[in-house]
Amino acid sequence: MWVPLAVLAVLSAVGGLLNLPWAPFNFLDRWLEPVVGPYSAPLPSSGFRYFSAVLVLAVSLVGVAVGLRVWERAARHAELEPTVLRRAWFIDWLYARIIERPGLALSNFSAYVVDQEIIDGAVNGVGGVVRRGGRSLRTLQTGYVRNYALGIAAGTVAILLYVVVVAT
Amino acid sequence: MVELAALAGRVMAATGGAASGSSGIPAGAAATSASGANGGAGITPGLPPLNLPAVEYHLLAPMLILMGSAVVLLAVSSLIRPRWPKGLYAAWTVVTGLVALAWTWHLWGQVVGHDHPGSLGPVSAVGGSLAIDGFGLFITITILSAVIIGALIAESYLPGEGLDGPEYYVLAMLSAAGGILMAEANDLIVLFLGLEILSLSLYVLTAYHRRRAQSGEAGMKYFILGAFSSAFFLYGVALVYGATGTTSLPGIATFLATHVLASNGILLAGMALLLVGLGFKVAAVPFHVWTPDVYQGAPTPATAFMAAAAKAAGFAGLLRVFLSALSTQSVNWRPLVWILAALSLVVGSVLAVVQSDVKRILAYSSVAHAGYVLLGLEAATATGSISSNGLAGAAFYLLAYTFMVAGSFAVVTAVGGRGDSRHGLDAYRGLAMDQPALALAFTVLLIAQAGIPFTTGFIAKFNVISDVVSHGHAADYVLGVLAMLAAVVATYFYLRIILAMFTPPPGLAADAPGGVTGGGETGGGGPATLAATGTRVVVPVTLGLAIAGSVAFTVVFGIVPGPMINLAQKASLLF
Amino acid sequence: MAPGLAAATAPSPARGVGFPILTVITLLPAITAVVAALLPRRRIEFVRLVAVGGSLATFVLTAFLTWRFATGTAAFQFQSEHTWIQSFGISWHLGVDGISLFLVLLSGFLFPLAMIGPTIHGDSKAYWVWMLVLETGCIGSFLSLDLFLFFLFFEFTLIPMYFIIAGWGYANRAYASMKFFLFTLTGSAVMLVGMLALVILHAKANGGGLTFDLMALTRGSPISSTAATLIFLSFVLAFGTKVPLVPIHTWLPDAHTEAPTGGSVILAGILLKLGTYGLLRFGVFLFPTQARDLAPLLLVLAVVGIVYGALVATVQKDLKRLVAYSSVAHLGFIVLGLFALTSQGLSGGVIQMVNHGLSTGALFLLVGMIYERRHTRQIADLHGLQKVAPWLATIFTVVMLSSIGVPGLNGFVGEFLVLIGTFITHRWYAVVGATGVILAALYLLWAYQRVFHGEPTGDNAAMGDISWKERWVMAPLLLVIVFLGVYPKPVLVRIQPSVDAVLVHVHDVTGYRQPDVARPAAAPASQPETGK
């Protein structure tokens, strides 16, 4: 397990050197040019960047100092951690309410109601209709010649009716 | 027709009735007026000679070969000692069939021509009562194929059932001769004649198995219902004759083309009744009710022959009557045929889904197949261009169907076993382990019937659907889609049978140690695993031959259908 | 002649190989199947040699084909054409272009893996025979340039797949195989009528005989717009059932879950692509006007598929069923790219067809390996497998990340191109589609966590890791997944011309053109002003 950490540690240490605006660290400046074309216009730079770098560094160091001071004795200071912080600003709770539960409900609905009952129900229903149709038509085959002859006669009458009514 | 009229005229004259006013028989016979002009002297010398039509024996040869062979077989067999020689009758029938087939092919060359138009062209024979044209010859080939395959199947069935004897084959050959007569009929009366010859033999064949009550029952039903519908047919003939004055198909066509009927009720009623009579024969809904019981009850070889030949002959008659004689009335009969086709497709497929007896499943599926052929009729025009030639589509379908269904019933015969009784789906369970080649053959035949590519079944369906689509009206598209959906429904029960074959029977280990033995040969080979019921399916040589031939035809012409399609497209009518 | 068609029908660059390679590639598996079927079952090792050898030989031929494929041209190459059924104008017409090349290669690649990778329970010989027959059907479909021939192969693939599911599948296989067969057959059945209508109406509009040839059908006067729309919809129905598009997708979860491992690999890897390939080749290319007009409909269906498939996958309790639904989602991406009707979208769709085949095929192989050991696919029963089967877990991780679409692996390339291509013309569809990437991460990572993380207990602890043979089977898949993720250029450079030719054809017929986006490095694809 230490191997990934070692890799990360090394990269963290030296990674900050990437993209410093001096050679040889700025080799990534023109890396994407073959695809996206040359930069349109580089942002104007001013002396402000040095000031902002120093400011950021100072604030970070102050924060580190404060943290060391507060937590150097004990890791737990219940009075400093209101619920909202302990519960990470309730963001997880919010995600669960807004995304996870409705999402799962939608998924379950899709899988077990729409897919299984509605769509598959229709598919199997077609088979069922054919089966039921077959079973009811089957009752016409009684096995008795008289019924068969009646069937033929009925068909004849129907055709004759059609001919008489429609065709003439 | 000429002879009858001449006779009638002479009788009238003999009884002293005035010749001219006598019964209004159409003056198609010069002899009538001639004898009438003689002054009604009675049967006295000095009569004009009988005007017998020329009988072109070489054109009628296929039919005559069958009839003659049947009669000779009957005579010869009565002279042989009662120990039936093994396989003689079947061999005789097969040879007869092959000889007739060869002659038909020769006629085809003369009438239609192989590479270039034949020298003869389509002709009418026997004074216009028979039409020897491409269509008639095509159906003849179909029926003869059915005879040959049917004989091979019967040979493996009859001895085992104790029904050996020449009668079966005699009846089959006579029935086929009747079918050929129907296919080549150029006159309604001749058509009826062929229909009756076909049917009467089939009635007896259906009831052939003396010891099975089902067989007798089926024969009885077929006979009664067949007579019932033949009566309708005959009445239809009479009505059409009344309306047009002739029973000759070209005569009817000419009459309808030249006359406008003020009230065509009689003609249409006659047309409807003709549809009923022939619809019964081809098992179109709602005239199909006899099919399941008769197919199930008849001995399976008879079912095979019946399903193939009777349907082909029936459709031949139907197509001839409606396309050559009544083509001008197409606006009247096309909607009827549409309804019949749609009903047959739907009812046939849907009812087969709920069956558990394989013979009944195949019976209902043949009802559905009748629907497909009716698609060809619905879309047909008498002289269609290649793309819309419903006649060719229907003809090709009949040929492909003959092999598929005859082969299928051959397999059913094998599985049916002693007593022709094992037809439930359970009988097929595990067949693939017992007889792999048989199961594979049945699979091929069933998926061909379903219309899966690389089989003639697919090409046949493709053909009729393309005819329907090229006919182009909205109703045609609907019918086409309906036909394809019916094919999907049908696939369900075909697959169910196939699945049963490949499922191990209950009580047997799914994979026996060492796997399934045998190299997949039929008949011989090592002791295969027994089906759960303990009976072993045996495939005799002749049966194997029949099945192999059907499968070969189905697959080979499914992959290279060109020759068969060309053949069907040349199957045009006399005019 | 319109430039799009000219590009596609140009005579193939003269780099023939001396024998009808496409016909051989198509028929070799079937011939091997016949030979293997005739061999006695006792000599099972010999049968295996023949069967696997045949499919490997096919793979070698497809690789050779790829190597000899000429880049920079949209023409159909290595064509072979023989009249077959003259009266209908049907010919044995095979040809390969950038779009079909990699699908054929994928088929050649996946089939041997599906045949030797999984453990086969029951009759191996029949299994291999059906697989080989299926291979012929798939490759034939991808190579056909004749509508009838395509339909023949397309519908024919249903039979071997049915037998594979019904013969070697799991508990509910009878229902699943029948459902698969009848469901997809219904679509094909309607397509047959549409196809015939197209051919016959085309013949009537152009005089002369029937022809089923793809290129011939795109020429000549068009048929009536109503008819074309209805025919296009019938094609969409057939292909949409195979893709599958929601809501005609419900055959897929059952079929994938109940199929044996090898069957699932081919079903997901190749058979689904028949649908998307058909949509492109016979939908967009044959019916440009309808494709442009009905594109919103299909884009909506695609996006619905992406989101719905992912949502349903999230709550699946069966690991294999989860992967099946992920296929629905991924194929939604492909359809999204295809109907964006932009160069990037189409290329993305085509390359994603290949990528999905690789990653989902690998996923099914891995799930099969889990099943072999634990005899359960239920996520609830599987826990902590990472500890006992690290190799399995590692390979699963890589494949899973490819399926999610993480940059560096092949899935990203396709999804990225699709999203960019859709964003150009249909911005909001791309936005919703992009959420599909997040959802894919959701269900896959959550499933991975439940199955692989934690402490293994009970039977999970007793499970062994995958064997060396299985590792060797997964290795080629992993290699290609990584390779395509890092260097997809060889694939894209061959796909691009064909895709552009399709778009030029669409422009020729409809006047539709994707908006120009300034691309500084590469010259924009020339879109000549030959309006109609």
Structural description of this entry:
With 168 residues, chain A is mainly alpha-helical. Chain A is built from 6 helices and no strands. Chain A has helices at residues 2-15, 33-36, 48-71, 83-86, 91-138, 145-167. Chain A is elongated, with a radius of gyration of 40 Å. The model of chain A has no long low-confidence stretch (mean pLDDT 86). Chain B is globular and about 80 Å long. Residues 12-41, 384-388 and 509-533 of chain B have low confidence and may be disordered. Chain C is mainly α and 532 residues long. Chain C has helices at 3-9, 21-38, 44-68, 98-116, 124-143, 147-156, 158-168, 173-206, 214-218, 225-242, 251-258, 261-284, 288-314, 319-339, 343-374, 385-388, 390-404, 410-425, 427-452, 459-462, 468-486, 489-510, and strands at 77-85, 90-96. A two-stranded antiparallel sheet of chain C has the order 1-2. In chain C, α1 packs across α22 (489-510). Chain C is globular, with a radius of gyration of 22 Å. In chain C, 64% of the residues are buried. Chains B and C meet through α19, α20 and α22 of B and α6, α7 and α8 of C.
**Overall mean pLDDT of chain C:** 91
Find the count of extended strands of chain B (DSSP E, 2+ residues).
Answer: 2
Describe the main β-sheet of chain C briefly.
2 strands, antiparallel
Structural class of chain C: mainly alpha
Q: Beta-sheet strand percentage of chain B?
A: under 5%
Return Rg of chain B in Å: 25 Å
Rounded radius of gyration of chain C (Å): 22 Å
Low-confidence stretches of chain C: 519-532
Mean pLDDT of chain B: 84
List keywords for this structure.
heterotrimer; A: 168 residues; mainly alpha; 0% strand; C: 532 residues
